[in-house]
Amino acid sequence: MAQQAAQRPQVDPKQLRKSLLTWGIVAAVVIAGSQIGWGTIWHEGVIRPMLNALLFFYAYLGRSFIASIAAITILLRLLTMPLQIKQIRSTKRMADLQPRIAEIQKKHAGNKEKIAQEQQRLYQEAKINPLGGCLPTLIQFPIWISLYQGINSVLADTPLELMSLGKNIYTGFSKAIEVIPLQSVFLGMDLAKPDPTRLVLPVLVAATMWLQQKMMTQPSTDQQQASMNQTMQLMMPLMFGYFTTQFASGLALYFVISNVVGIAIQWIVQKIIDAGDKDESAGQVTRTKKAGNGTKTD
Amino acid sequence: MIKRRAVALVLMVVAVVLTGCMGQGAVTNAGWTVAAERDGTVYTALATGYVLALDAQQGSLIWQYPETQAATGVGCSIARPADEQRAGPLDAVYGPPLVLDDVVVVGSFDGNLQAFDRLSGEPLWSYTVDQAIIGSAVEADGVLYFGSSDGNVYAIDAATQKPVWAQPFRTRNRVWGAPEIDGDRLYVASMDHAVYALDRTNGQLIWERNLGASVPGALTLADGRIYAGSVDRYLTCLNADDGTVLWRSPQYEAWVWGEALVVGDGVYFGSLDGAMHALNVADGAPLWPDVHLEGAIRAGPALLGDAMLVGTETGYVYTVALADGVNSLVFGDRKDEELGAVLSTPVVEGDQAYVTTATGRVVALDLTQRDPVLWVYPPVESK
Fold first, then answer.
1. Contact A141 B1 (CB under 8 A)
2. CATH number of the domain residue B312 falls in
3. Preceding omega of A181 cis (within 30 degrees of 0)
4. B306: closest CA among B323, B288, B289?
5. CA A119 to CA B348: how far, in whole Å?
6. In 3D, which of B6, B21, B16, B18 has the Cα closest to residue A143?
7. B78 touches chain A (CB under 8 A)
8. Domain layout of chain A by residue ranges
9. Can you tell me the ipTM of this complex?
10. Cα–Cα distance measured from residue A135 to residue A88, given in angstroms and rounded to the nearest whole number
11. Residue B2 is nearest to which of A131, A138, A243, comparing CB atoms?
């Protein structure tokens, strides 16, 4: 009996609870989506709250649309901060593993299957999900899309948009009535339309995004990975810089504010992690010294 | 590497979604199709940006601007060159065409007020302002008056297109409704919450009344009273002489946007929650309980004998009796769904009505018939 129990695969109860919770949420979302309709969930669960939040901040922050966007950005960044911290930690751990990955690649050169197996084992040992770092970035996309739609809807440049806005303001949000239509001009720029210079905001978006990418990307010993990182570091800012020439400048300002806040968070978290690493190494040194002393005493 | 590729893929999908790739020649900012009728011809600006003259009886095309169809195919709207836009259909049109003796005048979202020869459709002139022209222009004594999203009210000579006032009258926000004219006065509402009375000879302010909320639609002027619907869900009745508030309606469930219809002792109008309201012009007391139709009512009702014709966002058209609010659906059963929302006031001429839809169609109805559809332009392809 004892032998049978020993042969049974070990299940980490914490991990099991986590998996059950994740799949439970996925199942609930799928069932809700099929019953209520994905469009309705997206509209009522994302777009409408975003639109009313933009209006709320506009109404209570001196009727400044830029202040409203900044408040939303900071709020969203704070909400997604735990994920970003996780991403930074994950990236750091991945970077720490690079020398060992290089070793594996060298040792099993030519055997791709073996390399993949060994890398997988390494990730499992280090408790790293190589795709885990994607989550914060992926979560940003629905936020960007909903904010894009929210900004267009709230600024209501056309009668159809105004009509849609009229139907989407929460009943009882009477303050909203006083502020419609929103003043969308900031520094002589209509936030509902693309940057008229086609240069200032695209450059700002690209530059801040490049800086954030640069801070986030850890050096890699893998040539191919390093080259890929470099390409992404350049491509993403360029792509977003191009998008900015097409989108409402309100959204471009969101990108800029979001990037700047992201850079700040990245800097702070990096400092905390570095301080933690220093403490850890100091602790290890002390422990080693103590252990050394102990050996001597023994 | 997998991570980076996944991110790159998602980025590309987002790029396509956000930049809105669509068929070339498609209109990125569609209006809601508007029409006017004169001497047996229906003049319309479709949601696709085409301006047409149609035979009112047959629905056959008399003229079209531009004459040729825009290029079709797959491409991104953002990649369209500027000159293609200029030579092509108009930008979105929201105000019904103003039909004068010789010309048809249409305002568009790109800030152009354009005139076409009434008989041939040949473009005659264009007057450009800084921002969108949403409401129709009105004409008196050879002068055209119109508002714009730039907050200005303009007066230009219809023959020379020269400004008549020393400078446009400036409000503090968008002017989306068509002005109303009475003698030497011009009344106009702005999204700055105010209704203005101007001297139409020189554009000088006579009085201004703040209603506390934006007035997105056109005013209605009847018997020395002005009726203004606003986004705070009221209809307000003002004295046209001095702008004093005579009464306010009860606060409704949704915005009052469309213009009102005044007949005898009653004022009739809809709201975005699909309700039709009838009030006594003397004191604003309800004439009958609100009637709920299916879909938001954006536009004002049109008079049809002892009833009114009302279009809704769901694409339905109803008759509502003036006396008691009894209503019946005349057009828009499920098979007509593809025709789209009715967001502009129907045009009634005798027993016939012309209804315009957001998908860019004009539907002629014979209201004496059980199956009232006379013609649809452009025709709907059978499925």
1. no
2. 2.40.128.630
3. yes
4. B323
5. 76
6. B18
7. yes
8. 23-290
9. 0.86
10. 12
11. A131
